[in-house]
């Protein structure tokens, strides 16, 4: 490589006082220019002409950028120019400009392992079955506790169940999606960062759970006092708010720890946490929250006559501790932004779920046997679409920057592109859709079993076919909407991990209830025995995923 002219050396010498990296880049560029003939044609190894238009010159190539050496300037080049400084060996790289056709996707975390239909299916099927059994178990448990004194005498608690469990599910599944994305990006490989991330997310969810729990109780009370024209009862109001807050707080802590453990263990076992974390969070969330709600409500109800002050004290204490959780979450770099942006999806999802609950209330007056099926159809749809949404979000985090879609991607695609193409997201959608029919057949057989539900009616073949059709149609719609919503939020610089799952699960509730109601109307019109049968003894009431 040729020697540096004195002018270039003087410039470099002055530049080192401000930036050694900038001086090094200038030295290498000057050396390359000196060694190249007119026109910029490369002459010798290490010398090159001007950088192409689609490339930029960088002094060092970071690990996440694919770059090629363009020119270099060893220390001898500067020394030969008569300078009194010795620059280290500098290599100038050509790196693709962001957004150019040649720009490679940014690498993040450990190298991704190509997944197949079989590998995705093997990882998803276990948590999917466990989640479905959790939905069935939660429904059977609610069937048992609905005759307890507190559920009979304080009917607002039954109305609280759908909104409380739906919102709790959203909080836990968004937590699972956030941690899964961070794990796949390699941010949880360092023990210190891992603990910081888990602690910040647990405090964030505590803050959300307290506010959401109180909000759920207020919505349930509003439905009773406004729509049902009931008399206002201050003791029932305090009881409902305190039970909702306690249940949300304790359940969030327990489920958050379980979710974080599942993700860390999945990482150790080389399993994609996106495939297992959200279903497990959903499966444990319903039964855990419902058990806590029933136990806390029973204890508070038994003590309300003698110690009526307990409920107000509980509410005040939890409200006072909110600023502490907010302070911790705000100081944590992993949760500071979510603290401000994560509320709208949860609140909107609650309103959507409430609309579905009102629809279900009307349908149950005509078809009470729907109650036993609603938890399953909504739960399966919500769990499967949560897996897809979590995987889509992780893929975007790995291969593009917020506001920029991966090359060749677009927000609006056809249903066939979302589910039938050869893209990775379509492969996952195909696997998830293949689980719908066998999964629902398994859960239907458990629900209709005379050993688990007293005097359960036999399911007719026409009903089974109709039910499976609407269940499959529901999941297909949700998977298609999941792609559009995820890419839409990403384009708007919004993290899909915090936004898509609440909307999708709430939409799944609304679709599940609506399609199930349409199927019962159709079966009643054709005279199917199951649809026109009298009320099923022991049927459970509404329960969201």
Low-confidence stretches: 1-112, 535-545
Distance between the termini: 68 Å
- How many distinct helices? 18
Proportion of residues in extended strands: under 5%
What is the arithmetic mean of pLDDT?
73
- Supply Rg: 30 Å
* Biggest beta sheet attributes: 3 strands, antiparallel
Strand order, largest beta sheet? 1-3-2
Question: Which percent bin holds the helix content?
Answer: 55-70%
Subunit organisation of the chains: single chain
How many structurally independent domains? 2
The secondary-structure class comes to mainly alpha
Beta-strand segment tally: 3
Principal-axes geometry comes out as globular
Reading the helices and strands in chain order gives HHEEHEHHHHHHHHHHHHHHH
What does this structure look like?
The chain crosses the membrane at residues 209-227, 239-264, 276-296, 308-328, 340-360, 431-452, 464-489, 501-520. It is found in: Membrane. It holds the Pfam family MgtE. One of its GO terms (cellular component) is plasma membrane. Residues 161-295, 374-516 form the SLC41A/MgtE integral membrane domain. The structure is a single chain. With 545 residues, this protein is mainly α. The protein has two domains: 6-96, no CATH class; 117-526, no CATH class. It is 66% helix and 3% strand. It is built from 18 helices and three strands. It has helices spanning 6-15, 20-35, 75-80, 117-145, 149-153, 156-184, 191-227, 234-268, 273-303, 310-331, 338-341, 343-364, 374-399, 415-419, 424-434, 436-447, 461-491, 496-526; strands at 55-58, 67-73, 90-96. Strands 1-3-2 form a three-stranded antiparallel sheet. Helix 4 (117-145) packs parallel to helix 16 (436-447), helix 6 (156-184) runs antiparallel to helix 9 (273-303) and helix 6 (156-184) packs across helix 18 (496-526). The longest helix has 37 residues, at 191-227. It is globular.
């Amino acid at each position: 490589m040729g020697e540096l002219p004195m002018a270039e050396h003087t410039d470099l010498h002055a530049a080192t006082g401000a930036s050694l990296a900038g001086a090094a880049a200038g030295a290498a560029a000057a050396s390359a220019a000196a060694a190249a003939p007119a026109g910029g044609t490369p002459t010798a190894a290490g010398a090159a002409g001007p950088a192409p238009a689609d490339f930029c010159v960088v002094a060092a190539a970071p690990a996440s950028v694919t770059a090629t050496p363009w020119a270099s300037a060893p220390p001898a080049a500067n020394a030969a120019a008569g300078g009194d400084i010795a620059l280290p060996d500098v290599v100038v790289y050509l790196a693709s400009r962001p957004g150019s056709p040649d720009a490679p996707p940014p690498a993040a975390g450990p190298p991704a392992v190509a997944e197949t239909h079989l590998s995705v299916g093997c990882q998803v099927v276990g948590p999917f079955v466990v989640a479905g059994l959790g939905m069935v178990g939660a429904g059977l448990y609610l069937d048992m506790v609905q005759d307890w004194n507190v559920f009979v005498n304080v009917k607002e608690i039954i109305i609280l169940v759908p909104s409380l469990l739906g919102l709790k599910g959203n909080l836990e599944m968004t937590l699972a999606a956030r941690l899964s994305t961070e794990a796949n990006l390699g941010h949880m490989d360092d023990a210190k960062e891992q603990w910081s991330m888990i602690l910040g997310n647990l405090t964030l969810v505590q803050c959300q759970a307290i506010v959401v729990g109180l909000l759920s109780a207020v919505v349930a009370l509003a439905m009773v006092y406004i729509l049902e024209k009931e008399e206002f009862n201050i003791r029932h109001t305090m009881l409902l708010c305190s039970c909702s807050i306690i249940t949300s707080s304790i359940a969030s802590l327990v489920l958050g720890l379980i979710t974080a453990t599942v993700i860390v263990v999945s990482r150790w076992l080389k399993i994609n946490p996106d495939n297992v974390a959200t279903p497990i969070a959903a499966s444990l969330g319903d039964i855990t929250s419902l058990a806590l709600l029933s136990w806390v409500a029973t204890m508070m109800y038994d003590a309300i006559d003698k110690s009526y002050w307990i409920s107000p004290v509980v509410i005040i204490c939890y409200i006072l501790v909110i600023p502490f959780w907010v302070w911790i979450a705000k100081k944590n770099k992993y949760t500071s932004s979510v603290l401000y942006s994560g509320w709208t999806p949860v609140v909107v999802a609650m309103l959507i779920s409430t609309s579905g609950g009102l629809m279900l209330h009307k349908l149950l007056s005509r078809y009470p046997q729907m109650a036993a099926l609603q938890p399953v159809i909504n739960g399966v749809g919500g769990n499967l679409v949560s897996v897809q949404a979590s995987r889509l979000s992780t893929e975007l985090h790995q291969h593009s920057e917020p506001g920029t879609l991966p090359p060749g991607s677009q927000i609006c695609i056809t249903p066939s592109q979302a589910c039938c193409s050869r893209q990775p997201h379509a492969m996952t959608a195909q696997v998830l859709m293949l689980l719908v029919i066998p999964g629902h057949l398994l859960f239907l057989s458990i629900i209709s079993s005379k050993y688990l539900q007293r005097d359960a009616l036999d399911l007719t073949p026409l009903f089974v076919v109709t039910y499976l059709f609407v269940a499959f149609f529901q999941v297909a719609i949700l998977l298609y909407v999941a792609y559009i919503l995820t890419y839409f939020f990403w384009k708007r610089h919004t993290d899909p991990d915090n936004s898509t799952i609440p909307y999708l699960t709430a939409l799944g509730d609304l679709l599940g209830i609506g399609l199930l109601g349409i199927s019962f109307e159709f079966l009643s019109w054709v005279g199917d025995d199951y649809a026109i049968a009298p009320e099923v003894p022991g049927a459970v009431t509404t329960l969201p995923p």
